[in-house]
Amino acid sequence: MTVSRLRQHFQLFSHWPFLTLRATEQSHQSYHRHQHECVSLGLITEGETDCLLGPQSHRLEQGDMVLIPAHLPHACNPPPGAQRSYLMLFVEEAWLVTQLGGDPACDTYRCDESVFKEGEQTDEMARWLRRLCQGEEHDLAVLLQFFIQHGRLGLRPAHTELLTSTEQIAKLAAREGLSREGFIRRIRREYGLPPHTLRNNQRIELAKRLIQQGDKLADVALAVGFGDQSQLHRHFVHFSAATPGQYRKSLFAKK
């Protein structure tokens, strides 16, 4: 099955513009290692998935949850030949940091723990996510309490904005007083991804925001630094397991 035929949808919330929800059903689709600018909270609703968080791997089963901080390289994929269904909530980090009393310009949200097995610790949060998916949730108290209970504020990484530049890697390295190879090693060490991959990943994160604003896909491709819409399509699928058109259509579908 191709990505465009997967049973999945994306949902925005007019009253909570800092949230985006993804619901994917019975998907065998694998993800490449990637990261998000948002904090991610996932619930496995059916099947199993192998979740790679940084250097650690975890097997998640139905009812288990995962909390992923912004900018952490990860990939959550089903075992070979298997399918899984899941809900994934993306929370704008700036909003979350502000709610926790921090400064989005210099603070980030860090998780004290990331994997939660099904049980009392996850039941209330899982019910909240399911209600949100059905349009039946109107209170953020459960969500905020979960973040407070399982994370804290820390210092924001230094090079996130630097790699959205269109400058060549060698020039970026020179600005940092490093050789090209030294700069690549530094970015790999801090982010777990090489600069070129990280840059394209961040372009897709920006593309999502522009699509959410209603921009045309051809304009989005140029705005984020791709040569044409086909490049946007290819990288969007690579990092998101969805096409830009599917993402756009789902977001603006009448509920």
Automatic annotation (TrEMBL):
SMART domains for the chain: HTH_ARAC
Any one GO molecular-function label of the UniProt entry: sequence-specific DNA binding
Stretches of the chain forming a coiled coil according to its record: none
Cross-referenced Pfam families: AraC_binding, HTH_18
Keywords carried by this UniProt record: Activator, DNA-binding, Transcription, Transcription regulation
Protein name according to UniProt: AraC family transcriptional regulator
Span of domain HTH araC/xylS-type: 169-250
Keyword Transcription regulation: yes
Superkingdom per UniProt: Bacteria
Organism field: Aeromonas simiae
TM region(s), chain numbering: none
Keyword Isomerase among UniProt keywords: no
Gene3D superfamilies: Homeodomain-like (1.10.10.60), Jelly Rolls (2.60.120.10)
